[in-house]
Amino acid sequence: VIDGNLTYAEERLEKGKTVTEELAQALRATQRAAELTSHLLAIGRRKRVDVQRVDLGELVFQSVRMLRRLIPENVRLVYDSPAHPVHVELDAPQFEQVLINLCVNARDAMPNGGTLTVTITAAVHGDQVELCVRDTGSGIAPDLLAGIFERFSQAAQNDRRGHGLGLYIARS
User: Fold this and answer.
1) Residue 115, pLDDT above cutoff 70
2) Are 165 and 152 in contact (CB under 8 A)?
3) What is the sign, positive or negative, of the torsion defined by CA atoms of 81, 9, 104, 73?
4) Which of the two residues, 167 and 11, has the higher pLDDT score?
5) Cross-strand bridge partners of residue 53
6) Which of 24, 51, 92, 148 has its CA 20 to 30 A from that of 35?
């Protein structure tokens, strides 16, 4: 995200255009990266999380804006946002890391393109909220499904670009 924004800003600067929004987005991405790195370290050590009340729709909207730079043009990214604010209590950096991991896994499952859809449904069961990340990719081999939430799972290692944590973050 940072590289993409700075490259885009540099191109616009050469053309004499304003780059304020791209630089602001790059700055936000560096701040998020620092928070996410700190949070990943906390997960590894099982540190206490920082739960706050946030508008989930806005948090996902900001994450989707960042994800657009990570998703190739042959993958259509759709965010079906809620009509009204959906307030939840969560650790925002941890949630963003889960969402990013889910979307990157979906992206990697669609090397020839497809559609990645993120949807929030409020009041699914009383006071619960559902976040759905869906893709039109190949899916996970049935023999690997049992271990997808384990650290350094075989499914993550089978992916040439695998990062090792796979869906483990989503379970944490």
Assistant:
1) yes
2) yes
3) positive
4) 11
5) 89
6) 148
pLDDT at 33: 77
> Hey, how many other C-beta atoms are within 10 angstroms of the C-beta on 52?
10
pLDDT above 80: residue 58:
yes
What distance in Å separates the CA atoms of residue 98 and residue 168, rounded to the nearest whole number?
A: 9
Write the CB contacts of 102 (distance below 8 Å, at least 6 apart in sequence).
133, 167, 170
Tokens of 78: 């759709």
Distance CA 167, CA 155 (A): 9
Query: What does the alpha-carbon distance between residue 78 and residue 48 come to, in Å, rounded to a whole number?
Result: 33
Listed in sequence order, the DSSP H helices in 50-149 are 56-67, 92-108
Residue 127 CB burial class (10 angstroms; 0-12, 13-18, ≥19):
exposed
Nearest CA to 4 out of 62, 66, 59, 69 is that of 69
Amino acid at 71: I
CA distance 95 to 108: 20
